[in-house]
Design brief:
Order of helices and strands: HHEEEHEHEHEHHEHHEHEHEH
Oligomer: single chain
Radius of gyration: 19 Å
CATH class: Alpha Beta
Distance between the termini: 53 Å
Number of strands: 10
Number of helices: 12
Strand content: 15-25%
Number of domains: 1
């Protein structure tokens, strides 16, 4: 049972609201460094991004917390409606899938709000088994569940007042980008697909980041298999991926993705529903999966965005080259941006939005 709740020390840590960090640790310029961590407790919707909605007001973008059932589980979501929303009108609508370990209150919330400001109804939900959504064991992270989450968001939002189901788009960030590619292969309700800083969870869990763990694949599969056997026998649920690190340990991490990721998720944009950990048994499913498998089934317009300085760029480039089923595709690199910086650095967020809005406007235009 102790393994299925948030560690007490981590909960206390996440509650800290006035931590100061240097630009050197964040790995960004002093101009874009955020000095004070966002505090989820200071926002009525527990949003932890800059400029987040604090109350619903007439004539502005509003947020609507929702709960619905998906395969018997409770799923919590936030729906954002555009300025001067009128439920009798019809609006283009976007489904947003969050990064690995993330929740709807972080970067997908930021993009959902910004895209609602640009005229779209948007929805982002916590993945099943994660965040505020139901499911046990907690932090189960299997591709089939994450893909089903995306189908489920499309199911739910299709009956929301004002949604034009003929103008439905899909946008995934990080791991949510990889799962969005997978969902779009068969879900033809989505008329256009975009990704930001796409992360191929299967490839990384199998091969290691930047293919650095190829020699231990079979060993890790053995560990995952043993973990599943232990679960099935009613034993302790084992977890991978989580760590309680000091600032110095974070700064010493070898990859920008993980160094800045720990800063984002455990410092500046921490939320109690967000965690890096996942059940070790999930690796049995993750390691045999790949976001690029059968990617040629995507036959709708595709926009893939990534930072030019991101150490994850190779995943976007590989997926883009394999997406041969669509003749309308674009790879856009945000100059100078690293992976995590595309989540929140204002100039990089604006660069992404400057491509996302015309892309979805063009392909979700009213018939």
């Amino acid at each position: 049972m102790a393994k299925e709740i948030i560690d007490t020390r981590r909960r206390e840590f996440l509650g800290a609201s006035a931590l100061v960090f240097s630009g050197a640790i964040l790995g960004v310029s002093s101009m874009t460094t955020r000095a004070i961590a966002a505090d989820y407790k200071q926002n009525p919707f527990t949003l932890v991004y800059d400029g987040a909605i604090t109350k619903n007001e007439p004539g502005k973008v509003n947020i609507h917390p929702m709960k619905y059932k998906l395969n018997g589980l409770d799923v919590v979501a936030n729906v954002y409606t555009p300025v001067d929303y009128d439920p009798v009108r019809k609006y283009p609508t976007l489904v947003l899938a969050h990064p690995n370990g993330g929740v709807k209150e972080q970067t997908t919330g930021l993009y959902a709000q910004r895209l609602a400001e640009r005229g779209f109804i948007t929805i982002t939900a916590d993945a099943a088994y994660q965040g505020g959504s139901g499911g046990a064991p907690r932090s189960t992270d299997k591709p089939q569940f994450r893909i089903e989450d995306i189908h489920g968001m499309a199911d739910f939002i299709s009956s929301f007042p004002g949604v034009d189901t003929t103008r439905l788009g899909l946008f995934g960030i990080c791991g949510g980008g990889g799962y969005s590619l997978a969902a779009a292969k068969s879900d033809k309700r989505f008329k256009a697909v975009a990704t930001l800083s796409m992360f191929n969870s299967g490839r990384v869990r199998r091969n290691g980041f930047r293919d650095s763990q190829m020699e231990t694949i079979q060993q890790r599969l053995q560990q995952a298999s043993a973990a599943r056997a232990q679960e099935a026998a009613g034993g302790e649920i084992l977890y991978s991926g989580d760590a309680d690190m000091t600032d110095a340990q974070i700064a010493a991490l070898p990859f920008d993705l993980y160094r800045q990721g720990y800063e984002y998720y455990w410092r500046t944009n921490a939320h109690p529903g967000s965690t890096f950990r996942y059940t070790t048994s999930s690796l049995m499913d993750l390691m045999r999966w790949d976001a690029t498998d059968e990617i040629a089934l995507i036959d709708v317009p595709l926009l893939m965005i990534a930072g030019s300085a991101a150490d994850t760029l190779y995943m976007t480039e590989e997926a883009f080259s394999k997406a041969t089923g669509t003749t309308d595709k674009e790879l856009f690199k945000i100059e100078g941006a690293k992976h995590i910086e595309t989540y929140w650095v204002p100039e990089y967020v604006e660069a992404a939005l400057s491509k996302l809005k015309p892309f979805f406007d063009r392909h979700l235009a009213s018939a």
